[in-house]
Design goal:
Length: 453
């Protein structure tokens, strides 16, 4: 099979390209910019385009298919040429479904927690020796790629993103996977540039439920008010399984799961992660994994990249980074840290980075989300607002949105770094929350400097 990727450099796209290369396909690609780590990973396998930019001469009649990434535009010359030649064009999720249509498909959806849940499932299945294909939205420890495709595996695990499929297909990605086993971890309004109202956003999850295969299973979080409105009674031809957080306790900075009177220490913490764990447990049950094996295996799970990831510290200070950006996830992540370290000073710094978070009208949804921090901080770059073509926001509007008089708002990353380095970090925790990188700040280096103070 010969496959060409338009916009091969994307995080998801380059992983799919590597997966197909590993499967023995002939893979080519193009992009107008390729950044690390995609660049080095593609180069190592001989998949990096020789030149940057679009070139319709790359589209030839011997191609079996073209895979179109979100980074490309509808007027891309390679896309136009592929249409003219009648070559089959797939979006990223369409091609994943094509590879998995004869397998049992497990799809983990929801506004938050899906990467961690998917990672937990893959961790347990690997320890159980279960051969499975997968697509996950973060680099996982022990896994070389974020996408695996094979001929033999009878199961494929999908992280089900609700964002749009491609420049020419405006369906949410997770509508294309048609799960046999589905999970929804929660609904918290996001992507307001695509789903302008909460009702429009929740409709995407209702449609996801409608697309579960007849006789399938839906596992959903019973602690989520929206899911409790849309899941119970949604279908009479599928199995409906609600879940919540299991029993657990925290002692000496360590969280332990309680099961049938026995305690099992964990490497992850926070009530939201314990709920993620219970959701993963139900998925693994449906795949034939015993509870005893799951609990034994999950004790060695360290977490997914950038999901409450420990990046440095010592006995006096701990530094974590987290992908949290939606208001509900920010609040849950901060609560987890406060619960784990109740006697420490908590400094929580959130970067406003997404279209939603940088929208003036959306700021009110962050009301009180940082209140559990001893020192709450928000960082944003006004230039990022310009790039997204949004109206400017002021520090006063940010403070009003969060409703916290102690909130510090900074708009210069160098100033933010100096502020953090100047603090007293005795008996403290620094929690960095962002889907970005604080404008290229070396977070590991920052954690190391703080640890030496």
């Amino acid at each position: 099979m010969k496959v060409h990727f338009i916009a091969i450099g994307g995080s998801a796209m380059h992983n799919l390209a590597i997966a197909l290369h590993n499967k023995g396909y002939e893979v080519t690609g193009s992009d107008d910019e390729v950044f690390e780590p995609s660049k080095s990973r593609l180069q190592r396998l001989g998949l990096l385009p020789a030149t940057e930019g679009w070139d319709d001469t790359r589209i030839t009649t011997d191609l079996d298919s073209v895979i179109l990434g979100m980074h490309a535009k509808a007027d891309n010359p390679e896309l136009i040429k592929a249409k003219e030649l009648g070559i089959k064009i797939f979006s990223y999720p369409e091609y994943l479904y094509e590879q998995a249509k004869n397998k049992k498909r497990v799809v983990i959806g929801g506004s938050h927690g899906k990467t961690t849940i998917t990672a937990m499932i893959l961790h347990v299945l690997r320890m159980a020796g279960v051969d499975c294909d997968y697509m996950v939205g973060a680099q996982l420890e022990g896994f070389d790629v974020m996408v695996r495709l094979s001929e033999k595996a009878g199961v494929m695990i999908f992280e089900g993103d609700e964002y749009l499929t491609s420049p020419i297909d405006k369906r949410p990605k997770f509508h294309l996977y048609k799960p046999d086993i589905a999970m929804l971890s929660g609904v918290a309004w996001d992507h307001i540039n695509v789903f302008p109202t909460f009702g429009n956003y929740t409709e995407q999850f209702r449609e996801f439920i409608r697309l579960i295969t007849p006789g399938g299973t839906l596992i959903y979080c019973a602690d989520d008010e929206t899911l409790m409105q849309i899941c119970p009674g949604s279908r009479d031809d599928i199995k409906l399984i609600p879940y919540s957080a299991p029993e657990y306790f925290i002692y000496g900075g360590l969280s332990s799961l309680i099961d049938h009177g026995n305690t099992y220490p964990l490497m992850v913490f926070g009530r939201h992660n314990l709920m993620n764990l219970n959701g993963a447990l139900w998925i693994c049950r449906e795949l034939g994994i015993s509870d005893a094996f799951f609990i034994s295996s999950i004790q060695s799970f360290k977490g997914a990249s950038k999901r409450l990831e420990f990046i440095g510290g010592n006995e006096s200070v701990k530094v974590y980074k987290d992908f949290a950006h939606a208001p509900s996830k920010v609040k849950a992540t901060l609560h987890a840290v406060k619960e784990q370290y109740p006697s420490r000073t908590i400094v929580a710094c959130l970067e406003l980075h997404t279209y939603s978070s940088l929208s003036k009208e959306f700021l009110v949804h962050y009301l009180h989300s940082l209140d559990e921090a001893d020192l709450p901080m928000v960082y944003y770059n006004p230039h990022a607002i310009q790039l997204k073509r949004l109206p400017p926001i002021t520090t006063e509007q940010v403070k009003e949105g969060f409703g916290n008089p102690a909130l510090e708002v900074l708009t210069d990353s160098a100033e933010l770094r100096m502020r953090l380095l100047g603090m007293d970090w005795n008996n403290a925790v620094l929690l960095l929350m962002s889907s970005g990188n604080y404008d290229g700040m070396d977070l590991a280096g920052l954690a190391e400097q703080i640890s030496r103070k």
